[in-house]
Amino acid sequence: MTLIEVDAQRDGGLVRVLLTGELDLSTAEEVEAALARVEERQPKVIALDLSGLTFLDSSGLRLIVRADQRARDADRRLVIVKGQAAVHRVFSITNLDDEIQVVEDVEEIEL
User: Fold this and answer.
1) What is the pTM of this model?
2) β-pairing, 101-103 with 77-81?
């Protein structure tokens, strides 16, 4: 049984990485590998779409923070597409939604 699905789609300078399932310690390595493949393509913006997540733990949050730092170091942007209330609550509690751009829908992202 797969706990997470990762689907990356490129649209010009934007790559949308849609996560479906659970992002936790058991799936973080798979997501990290997928993000590394996306980062190799050097897009201007990576939209990490959390709308399909049902669970996010501290391992997933750490992965997102590291991805944001790599993006900043590479002069690119990481944008989070907001997840369900239980998933987004982790961003609110940690104030990460003040540090990383969060949008309701990928259509809101400007290049």
Assistant:
1) 0.94
2) parallel
